[in-house]
Structure prediction request, 175 residues.
Amino acid sequence: MHILALLSAVLGVAVFILFRMHQAANAARDIADVADDARGLFRRWQWRRRSGRNPIDLVEDPREAACAMMVVVAQADGSLTERERHVIENETVNRFGATPSQAEELVARARWTVQDRTDAGEVFRRLAPLIKRTCGPVERADLIAMLRAVANAESRQGDIVLHDISRLEQSLRER
Prediction:
């Protein structure tokens, strides 16, 4: 009889320990859920802060800014043609040292950034401070050459876009 009492006591202790381990696991899961919720709250807060802003204002990479400028020059006379896209990708590969897939990605992002913009002057004005802050005189001259190459890719570019490029060039020379 005393053996049955001992076995039931050991079994009771084992059940108690398993129950406590289960409770500890649930508590650890609850703590992890709270941490995930806090991280999600921070991400939602960041997203809300960024979602109300213009996509052009979110550009932080000068390569991305240069691609956006080239795309808006190409779109100034209508939609982006295959030849203009090819020129932009070649300029990106040659001047930035990007791979063809990176160039495609930069052009796609640039197209999204300036999707409804046809005024090159406005895009230049918004992105010029980033270019001034991050690029030296050689890179700025390269940017102007890239913009002119895209403008000359199709023979139907207007004087307005060329004037905007000239104003950007003048603005980039000023310090």
Summary: DSSP finds seven helices and no strands in the chain. The helical segments are 2-51, 62-75, 82-96, 100-113, 120-134, 137-151, 159-173. The chain has a mean pLDDT of 85.
